Amino acid sequence: MNAVALLEKYFHDPYAFRIILEHSRMVAAKALQTARNLEEMGLDLNFLEEAAMLHDIGVCRTAAPKYHCHGIEPYIRHGIIGKEILEAEGFPRHALVCERHIGVGLSAADIRSQRLPLPEKDMTPQTLEEKIVCFADLFYSKSPGKSGKEKSIDKVKTGLEIFGEHKVMIFEGWLKDFKI
Predict the structure, then answer these.
(1) For 73-86, how does the pLDDT look when each residue is reduced to its tens digit (9 = 90+)?
(2) Which residues contact 73 (CB under 8 A, 6 or more apart)?
């Protein structure tokens, strides 16, 4: 699989493609760096890198003008859109990473309580690779002026606090599990 070519297939605007490609490369590098701490786990590094590169493919169909994406779907749906795209492309395992990478994952209770325009089901990362991509994504923004800079652990925690202390606790558990 050529993840860059797949992103290019769906991001027709050159600016949008550059934003997603830069973000995805940083997330992939962080995911691989994290995986190196867990060599004994026998992770599939090729899959991990591909999944990290493709985790935001669904942004292409969202209404996210600051990323030059002019679809009709709300941005929060980019995970499930990405799942649909990658399933159609024949990559069901990668598709699950897309669906489950939002924040530290979304539970059915999160979706219900926040009245999110998503199916009311569990969309939390289940596999170690899914958790690592989710974790790595928290450190990088796609926003102009903020992209390219890794957030500190404290800044990631502050961002998660908005969604509840339980989200911060998940992140802190990952820090411990991933030997960070």
Answers:
(1) 999 999 999 999 99
(2) 61, 62, 63, 81
| Domain that includes residue 51, residue range | 3-177
User: What is d(CA 11, CA 89) in angstroms, rounded to the nearest whole number?
Assistant: 15
C-alpha distances in Å from residue 105, one per residue of 94, 98, 175: 15, 10, 15
Q: Say if residues 7 and 20 touch (Cβ distance below 8 Å).
A: yes
Cα–Cα separations (whole angstroms), residue 54 to 59, 82, 139: 10, 8, 16
Q: Span 72-101, mean pLDDT?
A: 97
| Cα 175 from Cα 157, distance rounded (Å) | 11
Distances (CA, A) of 102 to 10, 67, 118, 128, 137: 20, 17, 12, 15, 9
Residue type present at position 112: R
* CATH code for the domain in which residue 8 is found: 1.10.3210
Inter-residue contact 58 to 85 (CB < 8 Å): yes
Specify the number of domains making up the chain.
1
Query: pTM, whole model, 2 decimals?
Result: 0.94
